[in-house]
């Protein structure tokens, strides 16, 4: 894996206040590891606790970075920030939430590719995921994602 931290915004269309990942710590063709600092103004914080929906969104964005990165690299292999993509969770399987982090905590989320089907303008994948707070397991699940390149106004 690459050991250089990467800004997640290089591989996702999400922006604040819905961006739930700060940095990609490691990424390769089959796995990704991210980090996220829980801040008080986060939309998924309730009574200083990062709620279940936030953990799931963090996991989905972590997973999307490994699959979505192909849409953020141009034909010359250079990263671009003008990709037009949409993505959504098509299924959550065996979700287990063991704990919830609090404001000020930094979580680390890891995802491993289980299966992937890639067409020219869309990708379907299944990822196995965990979120940790130090040594404490917060979440484990399997998630299915659908990511599709959309047509930009210039392409019409």
How would you describe what is shown here?
- With 156 residues, the chain is mainly beta.
- The protein has one domain (6-155): Thiol Ester Dehydrase, Chain A.
- It is built from 1 helix and 9 strands.
- The strands form 2 sheets. It has a 7-stranded antiparallel beta sheet, with helices on one face.
- A hairpin with a 3-residue loop joins strand 2 (23-27) and strand 3.
Strand order of the largest sheet: 1-2-3-7-8-9-6
Structural class comes to: mainly beta
Number of strands: 9
The number of domains is: 1
Cα-to-Cα separation, first versus last residue: 38 Å
User: Could you spell the SSE succession in H and E letters?
Assistant: EEEEEHEEEE
**Rg, alpha carbons:** 15 Å
Most strands sheet: 7 strands, antiparallel
CATH architecture designation: Roll
List the total number of helices. 1
Low-confidence stretches: none
Strand content: 35-45%
CATH third-tier fold name: Thiol Ester Dehydrase, Chain A
Rounded average pLDDT: 81
CATH class division: Alpha Beta
Oligomeric description of these chains = single chain
Task: Please name the fourth-level CATH homologous superfamily.
Answer: Hotdog Thioesterase
Helical content stands at 10-25%
- What is the approximate shape? globular
Pfam family, one: ApeP-like
InterPro entries: ApeP-like_dehydratase, HotDog_dom_sf
Organism: Flavobacterium artemisiae
Protein name: ABC transporter permease
């Amino acid at each position: 894996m690459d050991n250089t931290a990467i800004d997640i915004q290089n591989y996702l269309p999400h922006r604040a206040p819905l961006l739930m990942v700060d940095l990609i710590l490691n990424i390769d063709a089959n796995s990704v590891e991210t980090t996220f600092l829980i801040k008080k103004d986060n939309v998924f914080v309730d009574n200083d606790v990062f709620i279940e929906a936030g953990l799931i969104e963090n996991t989905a964005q972590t997973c999307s970075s490994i699959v979505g990165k192909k849409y953020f690299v141009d034909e010359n292999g250079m990263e671009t920030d003008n990709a037009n993509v949409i993505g959504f969770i098509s299924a959550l399987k065996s979700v287990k939430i063991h704990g919830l982090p609090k404001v000020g905590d930094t979580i680390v989320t890891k995802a491993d590719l289980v299966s992937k089907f890639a067409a020219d303008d869309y990708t379907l994948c299944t990822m196995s995921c965990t979120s940790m707070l130090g040594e404490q397991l917060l979440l484990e699940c399997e998630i299915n994602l659908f990511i599709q390149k959309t047509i930009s106004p210039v392409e019409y």
